[in-house]
Amino acid sequence: MSILIYAESAEGKFKKVAFELASYAKKVAETTGTTVTALTINAGDTAELGKYGVDKVLKVSSDKLNNFNARAYADVIKQAAEKEDSKVVVLSSTTDSLYLAPLVAVNLNAGYASNVVALPVSTAPFQVKRNAFSNKAFNITQIDTDVKVLAIGKNSFGLVEASGAAAAEDFAPAIADADFGVQTQSVEKGSGKVTIADADVVVSGGRGLKGPENWGMIEELANVLGAATACSKPVSDLGWRSHSEHVGQTGKPVATNLYIAVGISGAIQHIAGINSSKVKVVINSDPEAPFFKVADYGVVGDAFQVLPALIEKLKAFKAQQ
After folding, report:
1. 8: which strand partners?
2. What residues contact 1, with CB distance under 8 A and at least 6 apart?
3. CA–CA separation, 295 vs 314, rounded Å?
């Protein structure tokens, strides 16, 4: 019996969430007296997973799985869980896993808890703490099924290193052609940028920047901080920025260590999508902007004056390091 995690990777390299899931599962395994098994799909070197508590790695290599397919990946996870007799399956809250988790739960006849933000409150009965109502509240969910599927909220647990090494084992699950009713024709990827999904820091701009020609300030600040760039929904609707950068309840959810909002008033839908970020900084010329009510730090001022000064100070600080 082993706790199973799906360790997501991209272009052969593990995403940060893979190590967060491993850290989480290791703590649960210590409580329940079991081990941690990680399932990888077309990943490269798996040794690093052992640093975060993984005892065993099931390595799947298949050209059929080069592009994400929710049904096929869910079927592979099911087979891995059955092989390891896993009673707890842990997934992330990335875009891919949000598609995967319900399918995995159905495949395993398992109870499913999304947006889990802490270790189990109890293992008998099995209860977990979850975000609810667009991250405005918490609830305690009890899962009574034999197998439990948990989706861990982004950046809710952190990375915890552990001593040990992960034994790797090749795993060849049955891959059914019926799972590929929907096929990927092409994938377009941005290059040379930190993605919103993997970023610890996000710098986001709104209509207060007045036009796409002024986005250089956002990009320069993000570059100094090693951050991803994002935008509010009106900005993407106007075509100033790509819809892939739209964050909020109707865009990509953000749960970063630092979220900087520049020229964004703070509509409730936007705040709901970024509310899980640990530190929120708002720069806005309107002191009555709703965003200030949820900000940890706020600057009332003209972004065209504040950002250049902030960038200059940060560059000077980095030069001293």
Report:
1. none
2. 34, 84, 85, 86, 87
3. 21
| Separation between Cα atoms, residue 296 and residue 315, nearest integer Å | 23
- Please tell me the chain's helix, strand, coil percentages from 3-state DSSP, rounded to the nearest 5: 35, 25, 40
For 219-249, write each residue's pLDDT tens digit: 999 999 999 999 999 999 999 999 889 998 8
| DSSP summary character for residue 246 | B
Do 295 and 200 contact (CB within 8 A), yes or no? no
> Collapsing DSSP states into helix, strand and coil, what is residue 12?
coil
In this predicted structure, what is the pLDDT of residue 133?
Answer: 82
What is the pTM assigned to this prediction?
Answer: 0.82
- The Cα 263–Cα 284 span in angstroms is 5
Closest CA to 245 of 233, 231, 265: 231
Per DSSP, which regions of 92-246 are E strands? 111-116, 122-123, 126-132, 137-143, 148-152, 167-170, 201-205, 228-231
Give 19-62 pLDDT, tens digit per residue.
999 999 999 999 999 999 999 999 988 999 999 999 999 999 99
Peptide bond into 125 cis (omega under 30): yes
The three-state secondary structure class of 80 is helix
State which amino acid sits at residue 161.
E
From CA 241, how far away is CA 37, in angstroms rounded?
40
CB-CB contact of 185 with 195 (8 Å) = no
Helix/strand/coil for 186: coil
Question: Quick one: tokens of 295?
Answer: 């900000």
Q: How far apart are CA 168 and CA 160, in angstroms?
A: 21
Chain-wide mean pLDDT for the chain?
A: 92
Quote the DSSP letter at residue 252: B
Tens of pLDDT, residues 145-176: 999 999 999 888 888 988 888 999 999 999 98
Q: Which residues contact 118 (CB under 8 A, 6 or more apart)?
A: 128, 129, 156, 157
Beta bridge partners of 261: 204, 282
C-alpha to C-alpha distance for 132 and 153, rounded to whole angstroms: 11
Q: Which amino acid is at 127?
A: Q
